[in-house]
Amino acid sequence: MTHRPLSWEDVARTHGRKIYNFAYRLCGDPHDAADLVQEVLLRVRRGLEDFQPGSFEGWLWRITHNAFIDEMRRRQRRPTAPLPEVVDRWDAQSSPGADEQLAAMRLGDDIQAALLELPYEFREAVVMCDVIGLSYEEIAAAVAVPVGTVRSRIHRGRRLLRAALSQEAAG
Amino acid sequence: MTHLDLLLSVYLDGETTPEESRLVSQHIGECLRCRRRLEALNEARTAVRSLPMLDMPADLVPAAVTETRQRRWHPARWAAAAAAAAAIVTATALALPDPEPLDLGDVTRQVGARAALDLGANSLKFVVPGAER
Ligand SMILES: [Zn+2]
Q1: Which end of chain A has fewer CB atoms within 10 angstroms, the N or the C?
Q2: Any A CB within 8 A of B56 CB
Q3: Which residue of B has its CA nearest to A147?
Q4: ipTM of the prediction greater than 0.85, yes or no
C-alpha cells in the first residue's frame, strides 16, 4: 500500500466534523467550536512535518486536547463547575415514573446542559469516549494520563451525568 | 459481598480484561444492586451517545492555510494543485458525512488547489463562500 503524505486538507476533510463536535460538546457554543477547529487545523498543518505514521488518532486528539486547554487558559475561564448537590446520589431512587420522565426529558439540550456541568476532565473523557468513539487507550494518549485515569474519569463522569439527568427528570 | 463500581463503566465500553469481564458478568448475575447500577450507567452512556453528530457550519471554509515553508514541503503537489485550480472545491470539504481513509490523493489535489490560490495569506481563516467573490 502506498502511503501519501498526509495533508492538513485530508485531516480537515476526514476529522474536521469530529473535532467540531468534540469542541461543541465541550463548550456548548458553535462559534467557539468553529474557532477551535480552526486552531486545531493550524496546529495540524504546522505539526504534520514531524508526524510519524502509526498513531494518528492519538496525535490528532492530543493536538485537539492541547488546543482546547490553551484556549481555555487564554480566556481565563474556569473549566470546571462544582456540582455538590448531585454528587453521591448514586443509588437514590427518584419518584415513581421517574424512568419514563427521564426518557421523555432526554432531549439533546438536557444532555448538553448536563455535560457542561461536569468537571472538565470528566466531560472531556466522556465526550472522547461516547461522542468521538475513541478507545480508552487513544484517550489516554490524547490527554497524556494513564488508562486507569481514563477509566475513572469516564465512570465518574457518567455517574454525575446520570444523577444530573435524574434530577432534571424528577423536576 | 463486594459490590462493583468503576468496572461497570469499563464493562459497558468493552474495555475490561477477560478476567474482569468474567468477574463482572458473574457478579451482576447474582447481585440486583449492581445490575441496577449497570443499567443506570448505561442510561448515561446511551444519553451521550444519542446526541446527534452536528455538521460543521456550512458557510465556513478554511480559505487560506499557507506558510512559505509549506511551498517547499510538497512542491510537486503545489504545482499540480495550481494547474488544477479550475476545479476548486469550496464549502463542502468540512461537511462531508463520514471519514474515509486518509490516502486521498484526489481530495488533496482538489482542496489543495484552493489553498494554492491563497499563498499570499499567512493565516488560516474561515470565510463565507461568495462573500469574497
Ligand atoms: Zn453488587
Answers
A1: N
A2: yes
A3: B15
A4: no
Q: Which three cell numbers stand for residue A2?
A: 502506498
- Put simply, the chain A residues between 41 and 100 with a CB less than 8 A from any chain B CB are 41-42, 45-46, 49, 56, 90-91
What are A45's three cell numbers? Answer: 498543518
Contact B102 A14 (CB under 8 A): yes
Angle, alpha carbons A107-A108-A110 (nearest 5°): 70
Predicted confidence (pLDDT) per residue in A45-77, tens digit: 888 877 776 678 888 999 999 999 998 888 765
CA of B22 to the centre of ligand 1 (A): 14
Where are the domains positioned within chain B?
Answer: 5-50
Q: In which element (H, E) is residue A70 found?
A: helix A56-75
Give the count of Cβ contacts less than 8 A between chain A and B. 147
Q: Per-residue pLDDT tens for A84-115?
A: 444 434 454 444 455 655 554 457 889 999 99
Q: Which amino acid is at A136?
A: Y
Task: Say what the pTM is.
Answer: 0.68
Interface contact A12-B100, CB threshold 8 A: no
Long-range contacts of A27-32 (CB under 8 A, 24+ apart): A27/A116, A28/A112, A28/A115, A28/A116, A30/B57, A32/A71
Cα–Cα distance, A35 to B75 (Å, whole number): 29
CA angle (B95, B97, B99) in 5-degree steps: 105
